[in-house]
## 1
Amino acid sequence: MPYSRESAGKGGHSDFVRNPDVQHFLESCDYMKPPSDDEAKAMASSFISAPIGQPPRLPKFVVASDASKSDTPVNDKLPSTQLGFIKVSHVLISMDKYAELIDPRSRFVDPFKVADMHRNAQPITYVMPGSNICYKGASNVRDGFRQAVYDQLTANRRDGSNRMVLTETLFALNDNRIIIESCPSHTCDASIKDLIFTPHNPMQHCKACGTTVYATDALRLHEGISDFGDNMSAMTRMMNAVEHLLLASFILELLQANPATLNKIAFVMDGPLALFGEPAKWQPRIMKLIHKANVKLKQLGLEPLLIMGLQKTGAVMDHAHLLERFLPNGVLKVIDDTYRHTYITGSDKASEDFGYESYYGQDFLFKTERGRIFNFALPYPFESKGGFGGRKGFSQVKVKLDKYGSLIERACDLIRHFELDLYDNAIVPVALAHRHASISLVPGGKVLDLIAKAGLGKK
Ligand SMILES: [Zn+2]
């Protein structure tokens, strides 16, 4: 996920906006505008004081993830024939050892010590056919893409007998049974609901056209692929899906092996807790899994699992920067849908439930006691979005702070702990994960092995 987006500072930008035609066009648009002082004060008054743990309740370990994607020409003479790469890095930070990274004089992360950590670097990488490449002799680009998704997600990303296979994660999220509505071959589209995909039967053939159908087609990533277009948006969707499925695979494994472990780890994702586009239908399964983990933790007398999405850019952060100077330090706001549509999306019509299709987490704005502003998200604390009286009902229940138990306070405590030590102007775990989306701190898939080795699992 790109996290330091360049501002629109290219020459000519303001000339365009001054153009009378463009001005006229803008008059017929709704968009976020800087609030007047009175409006800003009204908005600021809806913030509450941010909860703070006495003492702060911090996890023992933080796992931060970041994903990036890139394209590379297969050779210099064929610049438009490209391979696509998706890289996801995970950084495991032991809170005990974290202090060693920090230069005590400046409180900045010591770059030499960080460089030391690069040595074992290796992210989890997924290689995909990019532009103008047909994979494994497929009759069209889209079928080749589907097969590549299957091959890449079915490859084991850990060493030895340990497994981290996202196809298995998909099955586990779906009670080991996947059904696909219609044949993914664009020339066919026959109903294939009678084919039941299981871990032992992840590949089947469409009875109408004979095309091989893969369990991973249920992610629908191939739907964005055409023979002549580029596959940029499919790759972006895949990157987003893979990052969140990897989170799910961590949770699934720890839940099975030693659920108490989950209480000692905080997961920090770069970006919103959401699955966008075609794979969005998997979002309810991730929500359900997190709920299941929390039920288990409760049975063990433990606090719920802390998963936090941090967003450095986007509409909520743009809004936060407009509002920042009106906010006292140490305040918090849950972004309810009324507030979002009134002040952030700038639309007249409220959505019945913002993010209904894609989001499994709720946005908060937090201005720390030291005056820095953060947009974080926490998973919705429910098994599903159903049962609350439709979308409107869910829109109301998702912003009830007491439903989040200790999570808001613990999220704020974690941000406070790391904001002291700036590194690339981001909180440390996210910055490290971002830096190592190209060079990971630990070999691909090793985070779980390290957690086990650290004795974290032992009660
Ligand atoms: Zn077919």
Note: The pocket of zinc ion is lined by residues 183, 185, 188, 190, 206, 208-209, 211 (CB under 6 Å).
## 2
Amino acid sequence: MPTIVFVSPKGGAGKTTSALVLAEQLARSADVTVVDADPNHPIHTWASGENTPKRLRVVSDADEENMIEIIEEAAAQTPFVIVDLEGTAAKIVLLAVSQADLVIVPTQGSQLDAKQASRALRVIKQQEKMSRRPVPYGVLLTRTSPIIRTRTMAHINTAFADAGISVFATELNEREAFKAMFSFGEPLAHLDTREVSNLDKAIANAEAFATEVVSTLRQNKAASATEAA
Ligand SMILES: Nc1ncnc2c1ncn2[C@@H]1O[C@H](COP(=O)(O)OP(=O)(O)O)[C@@H](O)[C@H]1O
Ligand SMILES: [Mg+2]
């Protein structure tokens, strides 16, 4: 069952936020395990709130020794496994990527961030060589303005496209709601519209992201089935 791994060398790229946004959306209709391998365990902490979706569980004791077993166990128990990691240098990242059906590389829209994303892509390529199998991935542009399309963003998109790097059509916009989930320890749907502006837009954005991830997984599965036949 699909394992989705969030990777980026840069702290603050939006890994934890986009991992939780996706987990929460998927948990509306399926069982989801989040492997919270960030040493600060932000998703584990978030899940201590009382409105945590019933279909979402968090495992936070993953380390280099047990990462593969933890993912295997989780994949046997729930249809979706989402792994939130910190950095790219550590062996734990390579181990998690080795188990991935899809790697998501969150990246903010600056030149510097895009460069950092390339480091994550190198880790993916390295893993592909080691395991001799393709590792499907996509760059997710995060914290983008829902209104303004900056020149830098356009440039980054073109650069990724020229390099043959796949980028999700959906971007995770900069929204107060995506921060508020963590500050209040609540799922998006439980946030208070009087306290959080544009909540409906954040929810629509989260839904679009989850829909694109699910359809990407389906396409990849269909493609690998054709290849195997
Ligand atoms: N789409 C977003 N909208 C608003 N704030 C965001 C968004 N994505 C991330 N952030 C904020 O940016 C900071 C870093 O995000 P985080 O998800 O923790 O990154 P990472 O896990 O890559 O270190 C956090 O304060 C988070 O609340
Ligand atoms: Mg994080």
Note: Helices lie at 15-26, 42-46, 67-77, 91-98, 111-131, 151-162, 176-184, 199-228.
## 3
Amino acid sequence: MSHIQFRDLSVSYRRPKSDERFLAIDRISLDIERGSFVAVVGSSGCGKSTLLLAAAGLVSLASGRVVIDAAPVTGPGGHAAMVFQDASLLPWRSVLGNVRFGLEMRRWKRDDLTERALRHIRMVGLGDFADYHPHQLSGGMRQRVNIARALAVDPEVLLMDEPFGALDAQTREVMGNELLRIWERDRKTALFVTHDIEEAVFLADKVVVMGRDPGRIKDVVQVDLPRPRSPDMLDSETFVTIRRRLRESLAEDMASLRLVTEGV
Ligand SMILES: Nc1ncnc2c1ncn2[C@@H]1O[C@H](COP(=O)(O)OP(=O)(O)O)[C@@H](O)[C@H]1O
Ligand SMILES: [Mg+2]
């Protein structure tokens, strides 16, 4: 568990085929409390992935800093585990081999590897599939393997970039529930990007709305729903109120995008 602080963080990229740089995120300050689950929403291109990459130490910063548990992030290290939208599994390795791979990379002691990997495979409900290969699994199952691989290395923070983005609505809902069940057990500090407002509210303690051009924080909404969360909360007044506020925040962004396109 860990406390993440983003302080005046800016990240710039080079424009394609040009020396010119532009700000992908502009002076973002944000606190992710220890053991909390924070969701990030915002239209495409507003810098959500960049924010996660900065937390993982995978981009260089134009200014500002990222601090995890009082230590500045200076590069990729063992502190964070990432889960991406495309289950980035090794096709030639079994489910067990893939989850073991994460541990091998982090130099876990050999004797414990298989046992530890299997424990996490069972935790995501794939106990009977340890010997299967990725192509023999559904999209949802592959994403479970990805989550097991991330959690098995016992990272301080868990960074998830639209992990359920490629799944159908129903599988998505099941996976959201599963993720919460797992997360509620050891409460790793989690930063979760999604384009689904309901998913964000259902999962998170706090939802951050980002806006674009340049990428920045537009709104931060506290989600005061009790835990464990359950699907019946989707109809509660608190849920509906928060969802409306988030929709409105996001709609402003969409409106300005529309003006841009109409001007073309
Ligand atoms: N490696 C890169 N090089 C140049 N531009 C990039 C790179 N990665 C992202 N961008 C640009 O930075 C902006 C923010 O991207 P990103 O963080 O991926 O946004 P999001 O995840 O919210 O869609 C976008 O305009 C995107 O095109
Ligand atoms: Mg992204």
Note: The chain has a mean pLDDT of 92.
## 4
Amino acid sequence: MIRSLQHVGITVPELEVGRAFYQAFGLLPHVQGNDLAFRCEGRQQDQIRLMSGPRKRLSYVSFGVGKGELENFTTRLEQHGVRVSDGPFARQLDGIWFQDPDGDWIHLCEADSQPTRIVTPPEINTPGEYRRIGKRGCGLESHARRVSPLRLGHLIKFSPDVDRQVDFYTRVLGMKVSDRAGSILAFLRSAGGGDHHIIAFARSSHTGLHHLSFEVGGLDEIELGARHLVEQGYRSAFGLGRHVAGSNYFHYIRDPWNSLCEYFWDIDVIPKDDADWEPWDATPEQVTAVWAVSPPPPDFVLNFEQP
Ligand SMILES: [Fe+2]
């Protein structure tokens, strides 16, 4: 079964534009041949691989499967008429490659999700339970705190046919639907349990990247990260707010190519034994936000990636 989201490959016209943005976002770059890869501090797992190309495009998504499972996936894919190949990219990666029904490349490898940096949760004084006694919650140096994301949690891909994608990712790849909004939006998780969604699909005229989302250590970090990016000249797109689907707090920033990068914290986690989890089928408005400092702007759902 698919156990983890490993990394995404994105083609961009200028790697250095990407380096500046993702560094400001809090990721650590390292050169891999002709590519530029990014990791989270203290975690030995690439999260983004930028490759040079004529225009910005989400080129592939890499998922981790269990040891010894690749052969089963190959058989299953071929039984469903999906061609398994070496992949179209110059850089070789262990694993198998194929295209989903939208024609987007997927890479599967036998890899676990690497441990994330341990973050000590802040002590919080909640009504009736005052645990932080005689200690300040904020220091004078708090303004200067820089944000360092912990891991890539999920992405949302645009799709011209969300139902077809859900059918493929559940029936062929074995993922599960956590919540959806009809044929407009669907959130999928690993069958092994974990985050409410590691991938989601949003309806559009064509494929593309809506957003990448990185977990951070708390609410403060979401806003400190967003503020730093705005100070660096990037545009806040939506947030602060709290989603309904997934329940996570969020803030989205536009990347240099008009996709979105999200900081999140406190996402719903669903166990492998998920008998009690009832997926919702609601409206996009119902699942988008419990609250946000302002409504989502009209361009929040636009696909800026060229077909
Ligand atoms: Fe998200």
Note: The radius of gyration is 19 Å.
